[in-house]
Write a structure and sequence with these properties.
The chain has ten helices and no strands. With 244 residues, the chain is an all-alpha fold. It has one domain: MetI-like fold. It holds the Pfam family BPD_transp_1.
Length: 244
């Protein structure tokens, strides 16, 4: 539905007050329009596509940075653990949304601010999971044999840690996507730009914009909610398939 809508419909960026608050199945507007006359189905499709295009690279970036920080324990075991353990404890204790809002306030117009905000909000838990797995791998006999043969830290990363962490990366990627979708929707609801390019408002922004006019155009509020729940459910289903 999203791909068909994006292919057929134009991005919902134009205002047409002559067609505002139209009900569903109106001529030319299958899902009606919002109070600015924008096509609700186009808002649904472009908002969903922007969310997918945002959360996937943001999750990949989070896992990459978390792994790099975890790998520092192989090169600087004492220093990295002493420095990062305190930072991780603080990050897990303070609500991640607060950190993300601070990032957005410090980088209000930066094109990659939303990626940095999601990274700051989500890296600590991934780091803890990867670090625990790395500690487990350190105790394996084949790793001890490699060290006895004179293997360097980068040899261990390429030949032992990355292959052993492959399934863990897949689990963390799929299990984290629903949370990133909800975080992105919350950012959008608070007025933070989450759409990519000129594709119209994000899903959360659509809810915030239309909630006070629910009696006139309920679809404008319900459709982005359906989009968020569908994304969370489908991505969560992918996680279960990946575990199987």
């Amino acid at each position: 539905m999203v791909l068909v809508g994006v292919t057929v419909l134009s991005a919902p960026v134009n205002v047409d007050l002559t067609n505002n608050n139209l009900p569903i199945f109106s001529p030319g507007f299958m899902a009606g329009t919002d109070r600015l006359g924008r096509d609700n189905f186009a808002l649904f499709c472009y908002g969903s596509l922007s969310t997918i295009l945002l959360v996937v690279p943001a999750r990949i970036l989070t896992l990459f940075v978390s792994f790099v920080l975890s790998a520092l324990s192989l090169f600087f075991p004492k220093r990295s653990e002493w420095v990062l353990s305190g930072i991780v404890s603080v990050s897990l204790a303070i609500p991640s949304l607060l950190f993300a809002l601070v990032v957005m306030s410090l980088l209000p117009n930066h094109p990659f601010a939303i990626f940095v905000a999601i990274l700051v909000a989500d890296w600590a838990l991934s780091y803890e999971t990867l670090t625990a797995k790395i500690r487990e791998i350190k105790q394996s006999p084949y790793l001890s044999a490699s060290l006895c043969m004179g293997a360097k830290p980068y040899h261990l990363i390429l030949l032992h840690y990355l292959p052993a962490l492959r399934d863990m990366f897949g689990f963390l990627f799929f299990s984290g996507l629903p949370a990133v979708v909800m975080t992105t929707a919350l950012f959008s609801y608070l007025g933070i730009q989450t759409s990519l390019g000129d594709t119209g408002p994000g899903l959360g922004e659509q809810i915030s914009f239309s909630k006070d006019y629910f009696d006139k155009s309920p679809v404008s509020v319900l459709l982005p909610i359906v989009a968020i729940l569908s994304l969370v459910y489908s991505l969560g289903s992918n996680q279960k398939k990946n575990e199987t």
